[in-house]
Each structure stands twice: as structure tokens, then as C-alpha cells.
Amino acid sequence: MSSLAVRVWRGTGEGRFQEFEVPRLESQTVLDVVTHIQRALDPTLAYRFACRVGMCGSCAMTVNGRARWTCRTHVDKVAADGRLEIAPLANLPVVRDLVTDMVPFFDKWAKAHGGFEGGKSRGDDFERVPPSSPERRLADAGIECIGCGVCYSSCDVVAWNPDYLGPAALNRAWTLVNDVRDTGNRARLGAVAGDAGCHACHTHMSCTERCPKQISPTAAIAGLKRAAMDAALKGEI
Amino acid sequence: MSSRKLSIRAQVLLWTAQRASAAVLAVCVIVHLITIIYAVRNGLSAAEILGRTRGNVAWAAFYALFVAAVVVHAPIGLRNILSETFGWRGAGCDIAVMAIALTLAMWGFRAVFAVFL
Q: Measured between CB atoms, does B18 come within 8 Å of chain A?
């Protein structure tokens, strides 16, 4: 049986990589590798996962330098030479080993007014939103985000400016800007505009390239730039 | 004082001004390059160039527009570089780039006047 040479980050920001030899198996995912290390080689290894099938987004890590879902990443796709380097997601504080603190990531969703703000009561009739309407299509394009943090970890601007809201929060805001039921968009556009918001994006598109859900936060951010610019020119923000 | 930030609207208007000035610069740079190539290939002397630009309102207006676009575009871009690469943000950075904008304007318009008057 062949084996993999695996380097795994241990500790917090002050840690180091530890090397493990892991048996190479058919159809093995990177999450399988991490699980083998924790169960068979070193039970003190900390990592996070839940569904194992690409639904929850909790197992994202940096694999050979790129942020990925480890449960949906087959070893043969990323370790042709039999070597793996597994680190926690970048741009987030490390709790321990491969576990990052997602609080700053989700705090920025709140800062971007990522919660729906409706204006109707339960006594009102349903809003009718045609699936083919332009707004609904734009919202659909970004609505499947599950908040895994891969885009945030891959973003250069987040690394340069810790206040930058990041691709996921801005993508979420764009889905709400296009939600015709939402009543909070004036304040939302003010919250997502400017130096720490959508206008800081350099359109490197790392978020779009690496999103496991094939969402384009870059397109969402471009939409926000235009909408916020229109609002600023009209004096609305 | 140094932690004071521009309003969100001002930040967005700066971004808009930089994009708009980039569009102007794209045209100005092409016209300027064509002008340089024409002057060099035809062996125009400094006196011959000045003979064409002195008193010519069209050339003066074109280069005044060129300078204005540079004055808007370059300091805003520099502001982004200073904040992202060196972490310098706030009023101090904004005042510094404003001073650079005024310096560029002084040098640029002085050059335009020099070939017009």
C-alpha cells in the first residue's frame, strides 16, 4: 500500500507544521486524511467538520496553499506527487490546529446588513416574485452560499485591509438588494459601500475561482458598486 | 484627528472620480502618444513644437484636461496603495494625498501655461 506525506498545521498563529505518514486509499478525500490522523495517529489534532457531503461548509481548510472543502476534495486531485500540506483557513484567527474562529467572518455579514428586513405583517398577502424577473435571477445567482469562508480566506483585499467586509458578506448583501420584499436597502447600501466595502474590491476574482458552489461574489460586488455609486450620486447614502 | 474618516458618500465619490478620470486618461494618453510619435518622426524642433502650441486654445484645453485627470486619478490610487500596502488610513493619509494632488496640479498646469503663453 502506498502512503501520503502529510504536513499538518499544529498550534495557533505561533504553531508549526507536523509531518504524518498516512495510508493512500482509493477515492480518499482530504477530510479522510485528516480524520485518519486524528483517529489513528494523534487524537489531539483539532479540526472541524459536520456533514461530510458538501452541505454544511464547516470543513474548509487550506490544502496545498488553496482554500477548499476538504470533504469534497479528492486526494488524487491535489496531491499527484503524494504530498499534502493542510493548514487552517487564511485571514481568520486560528483557535487551534485546523480550527479557525469564524466570528469575524459572520460579524461582517451582520455589518453588511445580511439579515432580511421585511415590511409586511402576517396579515398581508404574499409578495409575488416572478422567478423570471431580473431581480429574482440576480438573487438566485448568489443565494446558495452556505458561508464556508473559502472566498474570504482566498481574498487578497481581506488580507490587506482587516476591515474589508469580504466576498461572502457582500454577496449576501447583493441578494438582499435584489429582494423586492426587503425594505432596508438604503441603509444596506451605505453599510456595504466605501473603503471597507464593495469599492475596495480589486476584482482579482480569487473568490469566484475558488467558490465550491460556483457562485461569483465578484459579480455581486460589481452590482453593489454600481448601486452604491448611483445612491451616492443621488445623495441617498 | 488622524483616525477621522471621510464619509461613506465621499469614499464612493472618490471611487467614482477615479473610474471617470481613468476613462479620460485612456483617451488622453493615446492622443499624447500619437503626438509624441508625430513630433519625433517628423523631426520637429522645440521651437517648431512651441510654434504649434503657443496661442492654440485647443492644445491648451486638451493638456489642461489631461492634467486635471492626472490630478484626480493618481492621488486616489495612491491613497489606496498607502492604506492597503502600508496600513496608513484616516485624515493624515487624506491630507497627504491632497497635498500631492495640489503639487501635481501646480506642476501640470504650469507646464500647460509654459507651452501656451
A: no
